[in-house]
Amino acid sequence: MGETTDYLGPLWKFIGGVGxxxxxxxxxxxxxxxxxxxxxxxxxxxxxMIAIKLDxxxxxxxxxxxxxxxxxxxxxxxxxxxxxxxxxDSPTHLLDDPDRWITRVGRFLRKTSLDELPQLVxxxxxxxxxxxxxxxxxxxxxxxAERDRYGANDVLPxxxxxxxxxxxxxxxxxxKARFDGEYVQNLTLWMDVKCLLxxxxxxxxxxxxxxxxxxxxVGEVGTxxxxxxx
Length: 230
Prior knowledge:
Layout lengths: L2 H14 L2 H22 L1 H14 L5 E7 L5 E7 L24 H9 L6 H7 L3 E3 L9 H10 L7 E3 L12 H13 L3 H17 L25
Parallel strand pairs: 3-4
Antiparallel strand pairs: 1-2
C-alpha cells in the first residue's frame, strides 16, 4: 500500500468504529474547556483588549483565513499583535525586517502565546478543537499537500498539537506534517492529554518560538507555520 493509504486506512477505521465515541467525547470536552476558559479568563481578555487599544491604532482582534477539517476555510481569531498596515497572509518571520511590524504589546502576547486565546471562540463554533494539527494558512499549499499524505487535513485543527510540542516554528514543513500524521495515527484521549501537558511545559520554556527574525529551518518549501500571527 502507498504511504497515503497506510495513513488514511487506520484513520477511517478509527472514525467509523470505536473511535466514534472518542470524537464525540473530545468535542464535548473541547466545548466545556473553551466555555470555561472564556468565562474564567474574561478579566484577562479585558486587560489585553485595553492594552492593545492603548498601544496602537486598529482593531483588538485579527482575523485570518485558515484551513480547517476537510480543507474547508474558516476565519481564525487572534488578538492583534502587529500594525494594521503589516503585510497579510504571510508568516511574520518571512517578512523583510519583521520586527518593525510587531507592536510592543504584541511582542509580549506572542512570547506568552496569549494572542491565541480568542481561538476558544473558534472551538465553540466547531471550527477547531483544543488539540489537533495547527490550522494552516489558506495559501500554505506546500504544508497542506504534505498533510494530505498523512490524513492530517481530515481532522479538526487545534489550539495546540503534536507538531507544536515537538518543535513549533523551528520545524521544516515535511517534519511538521509528519508529526501531524503521528497524531492522526494515535487519536486517543491520552494522546490529547500528553499534548496539553507538553504544551504547558513548552509555554513555560518558550520552546520553538521564532518571532521577529528569519530562521533557516523554517519555510523549507515556501511559507510555513505558526509565525503568521497578527
